[in-house]
Request: fold
Amino acid sequence: MKKIFLLFSNTILVLTFLSAFAWLIKEANSNSEVLGKGIDKALIKWSSFPDKFSKAVDQIQHLPETFISTPENFTPINKLEDDVLVLFTYSSSNSNRNIELKNLRTDSLLKSWQIKGLDNSHRRVMHPLLMEDDHVIYASIGVPGVFCIDESSKMKWKQDQVISHHSLNRDHNNHIWLCTYPTLKAKEPKYDAQLIINDKELPFIDNSITCLDYENGMILFHRSLSQILIDNDLESILLKSSQASDPLHINDVQPVLTSGQYLEKGDLFISCKNISTVLLYRPTTNTIIDVIEGPFQSQHDVDIINDSTISIFNNNTHTIWQNPDSDWTKTESKVEIGPLYSQILFYHFNDDSFSLKDEKSMTANKIYTFTEGLSEKLFDGAYFVEEQNSGVLWVLKDDEVLYKNVLKSHHDGYHHLPNWARIIND
Reply:
């Protein structure tokens, strides 16, 4: 009986306190100054804390996928002695994107452009292309439209017949080469092709390569890669993919700008992630000159180093993430392979060999990205690396880290997802 009386008394006291506290908050909000202005302000702040906390939690839980959580112990590094100019794109709001030219050495903003009115907060603008007149070519991945804006962000032209994805690159004629899909005027990617195996029809997403006139955005070249493979008796290469519905997955079309012993001006390197293959293609004759395969898997970003060497950003990973069968027993004497990290890989045409750049530094810093990622040659043997999944940007030279940082955002504790930053060498 005593316990019940004690519980009842405590309940009455708590209810009385809460009632008085609620009355004080009500009076504070009505500016009655019962306890003075200072205490009134403190009460209002205290009472609004749950709303602010709930709003902050809701904001974090609903941040677009263009933001990445920054580790609490993240430590930037900047030992750069030379300027490194990089063109970035990032989300400034749910519907707006900024394109900025920054100097990593000084962390200074040099130029900027604004893109407004995107339809989706998760929408990414990837690998924008800066031209000599300060015009910028850009596309939003996975939806129709390639756009050209001037130095004031005003629209110069748009090409709405193609859906561009991944890289944009300029050729020796100042024309723009894109990774696209074969069907023009489509609102979304489609099954543009199919394999027929044992009388079974297996539809798949085809890819195409497209060239646009820089002056007006008109289509100068547009061809299905599957058809190119058929024309060159290489359609069997489609069967090597680990993803039957998307066997090619082009992620880079890199034009050759000057002729040499092994390459001809106007040739294209086409990187196909899902077959871990780089094709050397000559559009003028519709000929695949070389099929480059080797010690790389799920690669991105092909760059021309000189007339006999290219670099390949080797993600060095499964195309589709593998989960081991839980029903199988693991032995105690397992054969250990790895750990594996991403690589800057060179392919040499003169002897068909491969070599690695800054391998020790890539491994020591555990630089790895399952998807996307790129590397770019800088000054005096240094290399820029975009570790895309983590959002970390690196500059490496002779296995030393000269730069390590992220693109900070306006959300505390989060940084921007990189969208294929572009090195500006001139």
The longest helix spans residues 2-29. The helical segments are 2-29, 37-61, 225-231, 359-364. The longest strand covers residues 155-163. The CA atoms of residues 79 and 402 lie 5 Å apart.
